[in-house]
Amino acid sequence: MKITFWTYLIYVSFLLASCKNDFKSSFAIRDFSKSLQPYLTGIVSNGVVGFDTLTKFVENYASDEELKKLSKCEHPVLRAVAFRTMLERPTFNHFDVIMGNLDDTAVVARDAGEWGIRYVKISDDILQHGRWKDTTSKNKTIETIILNHRYLSSAYYKILTVEPKDSYYSSIKEMAQHVPNYDNIVGQIGFNEIERALYALAKFGKSEDIQIIKKALISNLAEASTLTFEIMGEYPDETYLEVFEDYYPRRFYREICRGKDTDKAISFINSIAKYKNERSAKILREILKRNPFMPCSADTNYLKESLVYAIWNNPCQHYSELRRSVADIVTDYENSKLPGIPLDPQNFPPDTSAEPIRWW
Prior knowledge:
Layout: H1 5-18, H2 37-46, E1 48-49, H3 53-61, H4 64-70, H5 76-86, H6 94-99, E2 107-111, E3 117-121, H7 122-128, E4 131-132, H8 135-148, H9 153-158, H10 166-176, H11 191-202, H12 210-219, H13 226-234, H14 241-247, H15 250-257, H16 263-272, H17 278-289, H18 301-312, H19 320-335, E5 357-358
Parallel strand pairs: 1-2
Antiparallel strand pairs: 2-3, 4-5
């Protein structure tokens, strides 16, 4: 794609505007040693936080004092390199480095290997490269970003790991009602992050939130992942049946046939089967009895197996006829199963490093 001068100017302006330079002191490249300056200039010219030889030189030869200065540099990409390096050196208190820089929201490009270039806030990059001595210190970090830095992608990705504590409720509700970014603006929150907040909000079980969740799900079905259906399956309410009915049949089959993706369809089936009423039975019946089973050449063997088990494992009056029609199929599936192979715990030795707790 050809990038015009004005597109480039707008992009650069966004990156500059996203930089939060509220540091006590801000250093330029000229403030560093002559031997280090060419490498810093090269990193800035490259514009990507990665694993290149320029970055390796900084990691290997910059002193701790230089890294402290670099973490307050006017160039966001150099700050990101500094933080990554500091988090690898035992001479720094890693917990303090993480907690002291959560408000650095400048957006940087980072090398994601085979996935190309990804744009993240520096504080998100710090968290994703962080390590903690124990789960207590990591949980303190998670609590801090949910309560005070909930604009970070990391906050959205960690809210599914926390219990629905009252102290989190207002933050999570605010995150769930965030307007998703549809314009691919770098560093912004999209619907897939908001889905996680909606799931976390559903955990509280408050009836007043059901309409909020439903409205968000039905308004963003084009962006839905499997998590959309997991929300409605784990925390069922008949209000959500409208979302299922809006998704089926058009989006249901389109995802399978165009996207060659059956994961959403399987999640859809497993979730709606839990409703055990005539509206859910109608959709399951239509999927099961459709002839041909799929209107395209997608591989749907596992999808059909999931459908059969979803009907079989949710016995109820409304599914009686459906269960009779799949009984023989279930028998065939059970007879064809191979015995599982138990995992040997010795193949997964524990991490005995000083900071064994990672972000992921």
